[in-house]
Fold:
Amino acid sequence: MKTFKSHINETFTSELPADPILENSRRQVSEASFSYVTPKHTAKPELIHVSPELLETLGISEAESQSEEFLKVFTGNEVLEGTRPYAMCYGGHQFGNWAGQLGDGRAINLTEIEYKNQRWALQLKGAGPTPYSRTADGLAVLRSSVREYLCSEAMFHLGVPTTRALSLAVTGDQVLRDVMYNGNPEYEEGAVVCRVAPSFLRFGSFELLASREDAKTLRTLTDYTIKHFYPDLGAPSKETYLAFFKEVSERTLKMIIDWQRVGFVHGVMNTDNLSILGLTIDYGPYGWLEGFDYGWTPNTTDRQHKRYRYGNQPNIGLWNLYQLANALYPLIEDVEALQAVLDEYKTNFETQSLQMMRSKLGLFEAEESDLKLIQDFEDALQMLETDMTIAFRNLSKFEKENPSNGLKLIEDAFYNPDAMTSEIEEIWNNWFKTYSDRLQKETLSDAERASKMNGVNPKYVLRNYMSQLAIDDAEKGDYVLVDELFNLLKNPYDEQPDSEKWFAKRPEWARNKVGCSMLSCSS
Structure:
């Protein structure tokens, strides 16, 4: 991979303090941003899938991607000449409680490259233990790896800020996992995903240093982050640090607004799982809304308190930003200025959320009545279990001169249409009449409005049952469906008539199936 090697440009390990201990033993690591660690050799690695688009983005030729060296490097069996893999040190709040040091327990960063003026970090997930693995083995299984590989690329093509995935491979090793944490562990096929992002720094990277009152390393890390990822903010100063926090806040909000727009639920928004660049990171127990439900969470660990439910994601984003504000306070020392940024998040959420929902309903000229129209629509969606993706997508077919046909357009979204009562039907028909009246104030034709709506309301999303079907096949050595879904989700807003079977409600068999409705942090 001679061409690819010429792009290597490591800054993280050259500009930030390293853990002086080279032994790969579980321990507390202080005054350091990372520990050097070598990936674990795998028994019989085999590439399942590689993203052609990311190959091009990273400057890797197709020929290089088919080489033995590519296979070895991106499964952890060979270290690129001139590089030293490492695991990052960070802490975090998990489910609202400070957990102390966490770190890359099953992720190992291979290197950084710079290509066409864009910086990328390459990271293997499931490549073996690190000093941050605690009692775990640092490995990943095929099940969770398929989910991460497909979802991160699907999110990118949905227009949601995200980390990405270059490759998916099986290792030939067997990995013991208790998927539902119920005392019934089983051996599963091991796998490795190569994640790609400008940086994998998290809120928790800053929190851990502040919690240890390590102001020196905190300043070094913040200066590094601004220099490489927020260079327009200028030289380090209190004003620059505040501007940095403000931009992180704005990026975080944009990401969450996009989550809400497409119906994505992250499932585990701990502060160690929030990117300092405002990217969706760490695809664990995620899911897309099937029935529209603000109270839904895909995470079995969160079923009781539902902290990370769909409707609470914007609030958790704010809560996490409060923790980041506390971490950056030693550099800024201005409570009022930090609070002003947090208050602005609240205001911006109200504004941006309303604007996003207007776009989903095809409303492009603001009216005061819009908020009530949106709320009434959301209330109606929850009267019967109604598929979010199908309902919003089919709404684009509504003709403003024909409101009586509205309910017929979205009846395919009802999971139990037989439960429709005359009262619910009347509520829906009244809403469509109001919607029709509201659309009369728009200047766009029905066709123009439909086109715009279909640009924000995806037709295809990675429903959990779709992932599970691909996983079931992959576990039998059949990777055709992985490739089919990968390609389907590259164009989520297009009609794709040959793929219409994926524009469908969750099948009943998947309602309570593990992997389709119930997911743990090991999923």
Remarks:
- The first strand starts at residue 34 and ends at 36.
- The CA atoms of residues 39 and 103 lie 16 Å apart.
- The chain has 18 helices and twelve strands.
- The chain has a mean pLDDT of 96.
